[in-house]
Amino acid sequence: MLRKAVSLFLLPKIGKNIRERTSVDDETRLSELSVASLRAGTIALESMMLKSLSQAVTTLQISTRDEMWCDAYVMEMPRTAADSDLEALVMLATRQLYWLEEWEITETRVEELAGFADLWLTPLFREGELVAVSGAEVQALINGSLEAVRKCALDRANYARASELHIDGRRVDFGRMEELPSSPALHGLFLESKWNSVDVFYVTPEAYGLYCWGTGA
């Protein structure tokens, strides 16, 4: 997956019984055709990437300073920011890339986006798992590491190499640690679901999100 270099996205086959408690229009969800097109690199990504650069995205990062639990981060943007799950996925993947590489959005030239897509996003989708899942499966995958990361961060809050919590780059009090994910997922896509590395795209009633965690052990 995209860490400080590149992290691989896992995107699933969309389940047929992912209705849960939602009025979400199924047509906005990633179809099997969309997933196949992402993997094949036949979808033009540039317009969605460009749209992401003008969108407000909230990023919450927990740094435990622990070799096993390391860091976890969540990125979210409003449901109103994208017209579909596909567009939201590409937008969040773009902002994840910018955040990890510490690139300045204001310095981006439109003509650079095609190169970014070829070098970064297209390989991500081509090599990812691409598995669509229910909201319950999303929550189980996220909670499998996030709860332990939160506990570790609190336990190490007073260490010499103390854990830290940042929201949009600013260090904040641990009392805000549970602000993201903002609400339970309705459905999502596993981008990576290994025992030591997790990337998952998810959809809630109010937001699109991306959760990432990886161990250094």
TrEMBL record:
Protein name per Swiss-Prot or TrEMBL: Uncharacterized protein
Lineage: Bacteria, Bacillati, Actinomycetota, Actinomycetes, Bifidobacteriales
